[in-house]
Amino acid sequence: MVDKILETIKTHNMIQEGDTIIIGLSGGPDSLALTNVLYTLKDQLKVSLVAVHINHLLRGEAADADERFVKSYCDERSIPCFIFRKNIAQIAEQMKLSFEEAGRNARYDAFDWVARSYSSYKIAVAHNKNDISETFFINLMRGAGIDGLSSIDYFRDNHIIRPLLECARFEIEAYCRVCNLTPRIDHTNHENHYLRNKIRNQLIPKMDEIFEMDSVDAIFRSTEILKNEKAFIQKHIETIYNQVSVQENDSIAIELSSFNRLSNAEKYHLIRLCIKKMRGHLTNISYDRITRIANLKRVGAMIEIDACFSVRLGSDKLYFYNASKLKLENQTLRSGDLKVRNVSKSELGSYKLSNTQVAIDADKIVGKLSIRNRQSGDIFVPLGMKGNKKVKSFFIDEKVPFIRRDQLRLVCDEEKIIWIEDMRISDLVKISSDTKNICIMTFQELVELD
Question: May I ask the CATH architecture of the domain 331-442?
Answer without folding.
Answer: 3-Layer(bba) Sandwich (3.50)
